[in-house]
């Protein structure tokens, strides 16, 4: 009977969650729209300036595509690498955990902009490939950003693994589960669920950190915007208010990308939600 009542409660609860999420999205859209309207009125610029988009539109589309490509490289690689590094970090064997600790301390102690520049200059040489094409340097720098983020994500996963009570692992072993079964059925579901909120924050940071690749001349959104300033802004017919238009448009794109990733992780949080383990709402 209790099981049936719980099932009915779950079925009734799902639409409420979806409705609350939809309300939050609508509120965010309305709030952002009001803010943009007020910003344009106060600073006297327009996001719909046709002359501006005639000159900047092509570069804008190129920049978005390149940024999405970098995000598509960095996020999956950093998440997979961070997961396995976090797993090794809690190993009982010091020969496995010690190198990972050195890796984490190294990448967390160096600014990402330095890693990007260093990787673009020396990465191709270390791979024994001619440093001829720009794409090679850009991709190596993107991989370096993935390694940098993996250091932070490994600590997130490590905390998730260590948050699982030791008693549950011992209970699984007492039931005759093999280590792989214990990891898959007991440890991973809880560790991943607890790791999702901080992972959302790290993913948002990584998306914004892709703008650092502009320091080595990439044609990402930030890079093409800087090129637009140098190539077009001083030409006849350019308006000083185009600066406001351009950087507002750039900010909106980054905001949309981070929001999309955050919503995906929120969906996963709800999917792995366990009744009775909710945080306290105040």
Short description:
With 282 residues, the protein is an all-alpha fold. It is built from nine helices and no strands. The protein folds into two domains: 15-43; 73-271, MetI-like fold, CATH 1.10.3720.
Please explain how this structure is put together.
With 282 residues, this protein is mainly α. It has two domains: 15-43; 73-271, MetI-like fold, CATH 1.10.3720. The chain is 79% helix and 0% strand. It is built from nine helices and no strands. The chain has helices at 2-43, 50-89, 94-108, 112-126, 134-162, 166-174, 179-209, 221-232, 242-271. The longest helix is centred in the first third of the chain and has 42 residues, at 2-43. The protein is flat, with a radius of gyration of 23 Å. The model is unreliable at 1-17 (pLDDT under 50).
Strand content: under 5%
Pattern of helices and strands: HHHHHHHHH
Cα(first) to Cα(last) distance is: 32 Å
Global Rg: 23 Å
- Structural class designation: mainly alpha
